Amino acid sequence: MRQAHIIATCKQTRFHLLDDKAASEIDVEGLNIIVKAPSAPDDPSKPKQRGKSKPKAEGKELITDAHLRLKAGVHYGLIGRNGTGKSTLLKAMAEKLIPGIPHPTRIAILQQSDNEVNEEGTEEVENVKNKTVLDYVMSGDGSRNEIMRKVAFLSKSFETDEPLQPVRAIRKIRHGQSENQLFLAHKNASLKSGARGFQARKDLKAAEANLQAALESLEQPKEDIDAEAVKTDTQDAMEMLHDLQSQLEAIKLTDIEHQARQVLIGLGFKESAFSKPFLTLSGGWRMRCMLASILIQNPDVMILDEPTNFLDLLGVVWLENYLQRLRESSETTIVLVSHDRDFVNAVCEEIVILRDQKFTYFRGNLSAYEKDFEARKLYWGRMKEAQERQIAHMEATIRDNIKIGKKTNDDNKLRMAKSRQKKVDDRMGVQVSATGGRFKLNRDLAGWHTSNRAEIEVPTDEKGSTMVFPAATELRFPGPLASLESVTFRYKANEQPTLSDIDFVIHMGDRVGIMGLNGSGKSTLIKLLAGEMLPSKGKATTHSRLKIGYYSQHSIDELQEQCRNDPETTALGMMMKEVDGAFSEGELRGLLASMGLQGRTASDVPIAKLSGGQLVRLAIARTVWSSPQLLILDEISTHLDFHTVTALATALSSFNGAILLVSHDRFLVRSVVEGKRDAEYKLDDDFEGVEEEEDETQSRRRTVYVLKSGRLQEQQNGVEQFEQSLVKRVQKMLS
Fold it and tell me: Which of 180, 298, 660, 679 has its CA 20 to 30 A from that of 224?
């Protein structure tokens, strides 16, 4: 399958400095990023377009004339709605497609999926085929790997009795260096003009000559190499080997192995798993390995795209503390994307907002940004209202003066009306300077401009599409929806039980949250409740009329698997098959629209081209279309931006059925299960929590459990109690 590619341009393409030094600071003006669909093969029957003008790059514009500014050593949180281009921007940075990023800059990136292992082909699989978990993590640093490869290559050449082997080795390394220099010279020559361009083209010719000389030297016949050349090249090989070995000693591989072990333990691995083959791991554990390999590097820029997606809460808390300590001990710049609000708040010092294809910056964490946004919205809203009242009064006065002036031939009234009209036209707008003082034209709006003052713009909320869940079907008679009585479950008869003596019941309207570490048996428990498995001992019962809506943590994987079998299927087409005539097309369009998949997105866009957030919305629609009385939701917030998580929390809060939520997202459990309006985050006005429950007769049962050692433990203080226990555990691990 042909892949779409990214086209990145910026104003600095002609004037930035030579790409000869790495930089932790990035400052790129006029950034444009376009995602271009893969071009179809040329049709020979169609005539070719003639003309000198270059065709304009066609594709979807994600970022236009933006200023990307990242200061060295600062931890940034990148926020924006699903589909705005966050992941594309990060990929363009990591692959140095943005011209203003110096090529030697070391950038390490964790992407949202492990496609680089699954889809890069047999060569990549061969590279990790025989690697253990620990080996894979330690081999993540490309620059260190290159040094080790050269050391091994040169050392091997000296182990043979053939005197020309070191000569061949050093010449092959020189040839590789010349190829790299030619690549950089091509890049510089294509980006510069004027005097810099002239020098860049001279450097390009020199690089081409160097590569040709290196190639001729490499291909020189054995009999043509004289003794002096052998002596010189052998000496150069020895000096290079000594220099590379000194660099390796400075890196301290023993310290790296120790750090790798500590990071793996922090991310949930047991020491017994360090020697397991990497390729035998599941997708989630592979992602943890990739995260560990990024964390033990010391890059100039570290990019983490949804690093918490496959971590349990212990791993999330550990990563929070690790990155906080990294801020104090390293100059690495970090760019982080995460839907976990608490995580972003704990880690990030500044926020980068990607909105309307531009970047805006805020110094402070996400919570401070949202408070500042609300304050600015209130301030500018009041100012605009006051000015609109002032303008309305002045315009009424102008009309009266014109009427009186014309009626009485009073020139003073007409001059007064004209003067006031000029004030309305030229002097209305922003009345304060950028520093909050009084606006002065010659200071605050110097230069040529079309109007004297900028128009007052009130910041508007940027929210994900709202979600509306269909009401649960009424039950004909009351009773518990599902219950477990003294349930024990074993996967194998001779193994320790995964669940031991579990008693659990859920009624209509209940809100129950289940938290716990990965592998504690949460998914097993909900599969027993959903009727997908039978207990080894005890009794699992459900209401005879019960309809369950089960969102599995593998729901997105199932959708993607179906896309592979039928790549042209749309969301609407899949739902039509799913309901099998129970709904009309119009009703299904309404359901998908209520989940945020409107119009052509639902009917024309193949599922294979939907974003992760859109796939979650489709999976939710598949879960709720039958109006179930019980929603079982297993890690539903993965792949969603935090705007959508907020919309999801609001929709779940007003659902009249029961909800069983399994999640590591502290905000989601606090809002949906505990019903709390968190002071740190603004929830929609439609949110129905504890404050909206008028009296005890209408109050819901709200309980948070932790599954540990096969048993359910109720948390009297909810999520906070579980989080505090994990914080203490992490502090011991890091100490």
Answer: 180
Which pLDDT score, from 0 to 100, does residue 303 have?
93
Q: Would the pLDDT of 543 be above 70?
A: yes
Q: Show Cβ contacts of residue 459 under 8 Å, excluding neighbours closer than 6 positions.
A: 373, 376, 377, 380
Average confidence score pLDDT of the chain = 81
User: What distance in Å separates the CA atoms of residue 526 and residue 550, rounded to the nearest whole number?
Assistant: 9
Query: How far is 70 from 101, CA to CA, in rounded Å?
Result: 11
Mean pLDDT of 36-52: 55
What is the spatial distance between Cα 664 and Cα 670, in angstroms, rounded to a whole number? Answer: 11
296-342 tens-digit pLDDT = 888 889 999 989 888 889 999 999 999 998 888 888 999 999 888 88
The set of residues, in sequence order, having a beta carbon less than 8 Å from that of 606 and lying 6+ positions away, is: 563, 567, 568, 569, 570
Question: Residue 465: CB partners within 8 Å, gap ≥ 6?
Answer: 595, 596, 598, 644, 647
Using alpha carbons, select from 244, 252, 243, 241 the residue that is nearest to residue 156.
241
Looking at domain 482-546+629-734, what is its CATH homologous superfamily? P-loop containing nucleotide triphosphate hydrolases (3.40.50.300)
CB atoms inside a 10 Å sphere around CB 58: 10
Q: Residue 94's CB: how many other CB atoms inside 10 A?
A: 19
The pLDDT, as a whole number, for residue 17 is: 47
Q: What pLDDT band is residue 376 in, cutting at 50, 70 and 90? A: confident
pLDDT at residue 525 tops 80: yes
- DSSP state at residue 572: H
User: Do 94 and 303 touch, CB atoms closer than 8 A?
Assistant: yes
Structure-token match 């209401």, residue found = 543
**What is the C-alpha R_g of the chain?**
32
Report the C-alpha dihedral over residues 491, 494, 499, 505, rounded to 10 degrees: 80
pTM of the model: 0.77
Exposure string over 586-615, b if 16+ CB within 10 A, otherwise e: eebbebbbbbbbeeebbbebebbebebbbb
CA proximity to 174, closest of 131, 127, 220: 220
Per-residue DSSP letter, 547: -
Q: What is the pLDDT of residue 52?
A: 46
**Rounded to whole angstroms, how far apart are CA atoms 350 and 603?**
39
Between the CA of residue 691 and those of 238, 268, 506, 654, 687, what are the distances in Å? 75, 37, 22, 13, 10
**Alpha helices (H) along 427-532:** 441-444, 522-530
Contacts of the segment 71-74: beta carbons below 8 A, 24+ positions apart: 71/25, 71/333, 72/23, 72/24, 72/25, 72/331, 72/333, 73/24, 73/327, 73/330, 73/331, 73/332, 73/333, 74/333, 74/334, 74/349, 74/350
DSSP letter assigned to residue 432: B
Task: State the angle between helix axes of 612-624 and 555-565 in degrees (0 to 180), rounded to the nearest 10.
Answer: 100
Q: Give the model's pLDDT for residue 57.
A: 52
Bridge partners, residue 590, by sequence:
none
Q: Which of 636, 646, 640, 591 is nearest to 614 (CA)?
A: 640
Q: What is the residue type of 51?
A: G
Per-residue model confidence as pLDDT tens digits over 406-425: 888 888 888 888 888 877 77
